[in-house]
Amino acid sequence: MKRILTVIATLGLAGFGLNLSAQTPSAQNPAAAAQQQQQQQVDTQSQQSTQSFEGKIMKSGDKLVLQDASKQTAYQLDDQDKAKQFEGQKVKVVATMDSSTNTLHVVEITPSESR
Asked: Is residue 89 situated within a structural domain?
């Protein structure tokens, strides 16, 4: 593309009504830019792999968390409704984790197999 623009500029063809500014589709259409950004966010989230976490659903203040005794960590749960039915129980949570907030984005919660 640079080479073509250089040739056009060298030949003086810019005066023939050619728009030589390198505009991206998003610069031409703000709605397309917003849609592209939203799609990139979805792609990023889907690229995060789901993981399994085990622990006990416990109250922490007014929120339910997954208390992982083996790692001595409590994870915030983004889906309080799913967690509510397992309060006080050992569970397996399939989720993606936002490590910046220590929050699990819950896919599924199932009772843990007791051994």
From this structure: yes
